[in-house]
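Job type: complex structure
Entries:
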Amino acid sequence: MPTPHPPPAPSLPVWDLPTRLYHWLQAVLVASVLAIGFLAPEWWMGIHVWLGYGVAGLIVFRLVWGVFGSEYSRFTSFIFSPRQTWDHVRGLIRGRPPHSIGHNPLGAVMVFAMIATIAGIVATGLIALGGEENQGPLAGFVGFSVGDGAKEVHSILAIALLVMIGLHIFGVFAESWLGRESLIRTMISGRKRLPPGAALLNPRPARRRAATVATACAGTAIILIGALAGTVPASGLIAMPRQAAFQEECGECHEVYHPSLLPRASWLAMMAGLENHFGEDASLSPDTDQAIADYLAKYASESWDTEAANRLRVVDGAAPAQITATPFWKRKHGEIEKSVFETKPLRGRGNCAACHQDAGSGRFDDQMIAIPEPERPSL
Amino acid sequence: MRTLLILPAAIVLLATASAEAAPRRALLDDFATQAKAADPGFTGFSASRGETLFRTRFTGGKPETPACTACHTASPLKTGETRAGKPIEPMAASVTPDRYTDPKKVAKWFRRNCKSVLGRECTALEKGDFLTFMISQ
């Protein structure tokens, strides 16, 4: 005689469609933006930033939906007292956690922690973008040192988020196993089994119109403020007139390096020793030498707050006028194959513009890097 | 009809030729005066001595540039390259017509490159020979 099947447990709609869409979209975006941030080369930064804006947009939506969404999406439905949280932990330790219809107390803590961390990553990312790169809505407001500090925090928070994602996934599998119900399937179908004896609540419905209006208002306000802030000129860059003598005399033999790439003392020492200029006599008439030295001193790295100016200000003591000898230059170019530098089109390390398409402006934006394929010797 | 076309072309050619010939003549005359002052036995510049100067490897200069040909290639007709990778227009006057027309530029590059390659200033005789060779190319 076959054992009778137990009657199918009643299931309840828990995660509404916007919450489920938010969850999976955010999972994909966060995974992509983290992967690019940690693994991709510098010139992927443009994509990283745009994905970051996407993450920020989703966070804004989730905050709105946490107020106007349906019952189990609302923040107020998953704020637990320390006592409830402790009871949950005790149940977990015994292997019999109390059933939760929506988020369990530990999951709820993780949701809030992840939303806060992602918001923090977006904020520090914007500050770093404005301060270090002179890009984005904060370019006109944040200096390099603040941006550099924000980038440190940005990285630390990103590592923290990775840990949280790991814990979140572990928690999902643990609760799925203990509760005999796949929470992954729950986040796809939106329905969760009703525990025996659990009384149906009077769930609050979603206030879709209010959510739409709030999202539209918040989104428009953020985009407008961002666009308006973006019109403020970048704080790290100053106006620099062209000097014909500088362009012509230096450009006859090599790329015309932006004056912001070396400190004043380095330029002046170089201009005082042109008779032996990197192994060649590059002497000028005294008045031309003086004019170019004055120009370089005026627009040396001390006058700029770009990343290049700040980083390259620290020169090598033995070769204070050699940009490629600075510790930062060496660190940033250490992983590039020697053949790239030695073959055409680079022919040496001094040809910045071969890879940095904006070298002439002194910006050296990450997105403007394009390392050319070394030309193969013709047989 | 053909003469009508050839005539203006010839005038333009002659005009440009003379426009470049005059400053070169002046440069060479200047070097000749100096050479004669240095050596009363001076009889004139020689393109073949200029070519020898162009091709000789020296040891007195900077190790990076032992000869003119290090950057200018062995052929005055070819485009050279600075050590930093920038192209240098061919040295031959026939290929780069505006060469040897600006006395300041000529003085600057003789001063720099003679020091880099030979380790000293070039004599007026050497400069005149070199120029004669390049103008003949």
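Summary: Chain A touches chain B through 20 residues (CB under 8 Å). The mean pLDDT of chain A is 92.
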